[in-house]
Amino acid sequence: MKHPITNRIYTDSGPVLERDLAQRAGLGWIGKNTCLIHPQHGSYFFLAEILLDIDLEPDLPFEADHCGTCTRCMLPAHAVYPSRSHAGRQALHILPDHRTQGGYPL
Predict the structure, then answer these.
(1) Distance (Å, whole) CA 27 – CA 47
(2) Which tens digit of pLDDT belongs to each residue from 29-85?
């Protein structure tokens, strides 16, 4: 290297779409719960990024979606619209003060 390498490091601290970049880097697929799911480790990990100003050979993206008809990560079931999770409805599930007699508000 003829010059110092410029870098930026992020872990939920900058405007970086970690989940999508991780999928494009081949780490897993985006599940119905909107989390990145690794084939062996599930979704129990943290994502961090190191952005560099050097050219690197890209990895192949993770193309497969292994969710199929599985809905284990989609609790409560009413929090999904139509095929992915809806954060507002999930919050309403844990905040009983916001429930209405006719169901959950949209």
Answers:
(1) 10
(2) 998 888 899 988 888 888 999 999 999 898 899 888 888 888 777 665 555 555 555
Q: Among this protein's residues, is 97 annotated catalytic?
A: no
Q: Which of 12, 20, 53, 65 is catalytic?
A: 12
In contact, 83 and 42? CB cutoff 8 Å: no
Would the pTM of this model clear 0.70, i.e. be above it? no
Alpha-carbon gap, residue 70 to 18, rounded angstroms:
24
Q: Do you know the residue count of the chain?
A: 106
DSSP letter, residue 33: T
- The helix/strand/coil state of 88 is helix
What is the reported pLDDT for 6? 92
Going 45 to 48 to 54 to 59, the CA torsion angle's sign is: positive
